[in-house]
Amino acid sequence: MARKIVGIFNRLLLGGLVIVLGITCYAKFIRKDAVIKWGQYGILIVLTNSMEPTIEQNELILIKEEETYEQSEIVTYIDERDTLITHRIVKLENESFSAKGDNNSILDEIRPVDCIQGKVMYHSKMLGIFVLYYWKRVIVIYVLLMLIFYAKSKLRKEEKNEVYEK
């Protein structure tokens, strides 16, 4: 009974991973989204130290798309070169804003507010390191283990069928 529950759980987990991977690939490669969002939320890794000490390099950030943004909020936006930037809003006027990294001395260029992808809601160094260095390996190992277990169960079924046929 316990084996059956574990098998069902593994199939559901693998199915969920396949669905997440499919949606992610569709959003990234077909729709060419800069940020892959689940509803209003997106997850990114900060690759520079421009927001230190508030947000360190390689931290995972959770952003949420908002209807309005306020001065001093940390946001992720797309710059003129289609690069994602996570900086703090310094000036906000009408439909444009200017931002600056906490560790930078120069203001970013003025951008339209609709370039903002979301406000930083959460950040974590540990999760960032996990995603950058271990997550891909964990998925690959999990998928390989699932394939091995699937192949073993197929072989067992075939062996049982051969025994019944004799």
Q: What would you say this structure looks like, in words?
A:
Helix content is 42%, strand content 26%. The chain has 2 helices and 8 strands, in the order H-E-E-E-E-E-E-E-E-H. It has an 8-stranded antiparallel β-sheet with strand order 1-2-3-8-4-5-6-7. The chain is elongated, with a radius of gyration of 23 Å. The relative contact order is 0.14.
Biggest sheet details: 8 strands, antiparallel
Outline? elongated
Question: What's the total number of strands?
Answer: 8
Structural class of the helix and strand makeup?
alpha+beta
User: Spatial order of the strands in the main sheet?
Assistant: 1-2-3-8-4-5-6-7
Q: In whole angstroms, how far apart are the ends?
A: 28 Å
Mean pLDDT: 82
The helix content is 40-55%
The helix-strand sequence is HEEEEEEEEH
What are the salient characteristics of this protein?
single chain; 166 residues; alpha+beta; eight-stranded antiparallel sheet; 2 helices; elongated
Explain briefly what this protein structure is.
The protein is an alpha+beta fold and 166 residues long. Helices cover 42% and strands 26% of the residues. It has an eight-stranded antiparallel sheet.
Chain-wise SSE layout:
Elements: H1 2-30, E1 37-38, E2 41-45, E3 60-64, E4 74-78, E5 84-93, E6 96-100, E7 111-112, E8 116-124, H2 125-165
Antiparallel strand pairs: 1-2, 2-3, 3-8, 4-5, 4-8, 5-6, 6-7
Helix pairs in contact: 1-2
